[in-house]
Amino acid sequence: MSKKKTEKLKPDLHEELDGFDVRINSFGEIEANYDIDRLNVFLNENVADKKLGNKLEEEE
User: Fold this and answer.
1) pLDDT at 24
2) Helix, strand, coil % (nearest 5) of the chain?
3) Is 24 in a helix, a strand, or coil?
4) Which of 2, 14, 46, 57 has the fewest CB atoms in 10 Å of its CB?
5) What is this structure's pTM?
6) Domain ranges within the chain, ordered by starting residue
7) From the CB of residue 41, how many other CB atoms can be counted at a distance below 10 Å?
8) Contact, 6 vs 13, CB < 8 A?
9) pLDDT for 55
């Protein structure tokens, strides 16, 4: 029987998130190598909030 090699594939990331890595430890806690505040700033700038879609358009 042949053993299957598992290759760790890197996902395509935005340039600003280069090197971002997330893991879940044995206690079920999320561990990331980026500061959560830095990640939130990136998401606020680059991802539209579907729940606030109409409200943001009205403010502009």
Assistant:
1) 93
2) 40, 10, 50
3) strand
4) 2
5) 0.55
6) 18-59
7) 12
8) no
9) 61
Beta carbons of 32 and 21 less than 8 angstroms apart: yes
First-residue to last-residue Cα distance in the chain = 64
Q: And the tokens for 8?
A: 């760790």
Per-residue pLDDT of the chain (60 residues; tens, 9 = 90+): 556 666 777 778 788 888 888 899 999 998 989 888 988 898 888 888 777 766 655 555
Q: Which helix (H) or strand (E) element contains residue 23? A: strand 22-24
Strand residue runs (E) in 1-60: 22-24, 30-32
DSSP letter assigned to residue 27: T
